[in-house]
Automatic annotation (TrEMBL):
One of its GO terms (biological process) is proteolysis involved in protein catabolic process. This is Proteasome subunit beta type-3. One of its GO terms (cellular component) is cytoplasm. It comes from Arabidopsis arenosa. Pfam families: Proteasome (PF00227).
Amino acid sequence: MSIFEYNGSAVVAMVGKNCFAIASDRRLGVQLQTIATDFQRISKIDDHLFIGLSGLAPDVQTLYQRLVFRHKLYQLREERDMKPESFASLVSAILYEKRFGPYLCQLVIAELGDDNKPFTCTMDSIAAKF
């Protein structure tokens, strides 16, 4: 069994004309045992930016907190919102710096850009973009 299957989850995103949808289950389990049915997997980073995290629950929560912190830090320094490609690069850098002891989670990024053009990106635990 893979460690990514320990808590079990699924996150998907799809793109339409000037829109996107991101969906996930809300079950938190330990293998076949259900612990909770209200676990947050999709999180809002910004008004137009959402991230879906699946995998080991403590790593999901830790990675989310780091991403929110780094995004707010960018907004304070630059005094503007982060572009979708920049956020994907930030996430990639955070994941890659932990490549020898990675966060055991996989993610989906979905965002509407300045011109309402949707952007989606997914990565594995060591920052390989798909």
